[in-house]
Amino acid sequence: QSVLTQPPSASGTPGQRVTMSCFGSSSNIGSNYVFWYQQLPGMAPKLLIYRNDQRPSGVPDRFSGSKSGTSASLAISGLRSEDEADYYCAAWDDSLSDGVFGGGTKLTVL
Amino acid sequence: QVQLQESGAGLVKSLETLSLTCTVSGGSISSYHWSWIRQSAGKGLEWIGRIYTSGSTNYSPSLKSRVSISVDTSKNHFSLRLNSVTAADTAVYYCARDRGGWGEVWFESWGQGTLVTVSS
Which of A36, A35, A5 minimizes the C-alpha distance to A23? Predict the structure, then answer.
């Protein structure tokens, strides 16, 4: 299993706000930045959030990230059908000296 | 806009060496760090390792004994070699531009990925 824990699924209706969580420990999320990646079906992952809460150019402000202690969250407001994808959190782990990912949350737009 | 394209053998025999190349266009390879990441059904996304602008490398401890990453600035590409592969190495392999370096997992641009299957 993954070092970072994510719920396997989430869902929402168009226009709704959804949040998804990522749980880690003091050696990863607790002491390092969190990154979020969006993977659309059949595509490569895409950087969505970097350094906990920063959006790369081109990512809509409907996407936001936050971190508190050893957990992090990704929120999507004004949900759209094209947001249906897998979302992965990631962080560096000081104890492992390794980059670690969550198992991913599959978002379904109902 | 940087573009990355993986290439290499899609089928590798067990215990042989997996070799992939990532060709970078739209920017100089010398200006950034670069990483390899793989994705398998069984283990999800897994960081393999990175090469820094200095040419130094660091690897995931779980693969360190079998992996090497190198760069050829004249061809604007970097490469991955993974020795003694087994079925567990079957995955889609991605190359990525690594903005962060040590202590971060900041992959700001990705290639489309290439499936490598290990056969017995």
Answer: A5
pLDDT for A23 equals 98
Q: Which residues of A touch B102 (CB under 8 A)?
A: 92
A45 touches A35 (CB < 8 A): no
Mean pLDDT value of segment A13-21:
98
Predicted confidence at residue B56, as pLDDT, reads 95
Most A-contacting residue of B104, B109, B115 (CB-CB within 10 A), to test interface: B104
Task: State the Cα–Cα distance between residues B20 and A77, nearest whole angstrom.
Answer: 39
CA distance B20 to B80: 5
- Nearest-angstrom CA–CA distance, A63 and A70: 20
| R_g (Cα) of chain A, nearest Å | 13
At A53 the pLDDT is: 98
Q: Which of A39, A98, A105, A106 to mutate to test the interface with B (most CBs of B within 10 A)?
A: A98
What is the reported pLDDT for B14? 97
Q: Which residues of chain B have pLDDT under 50?
A: none
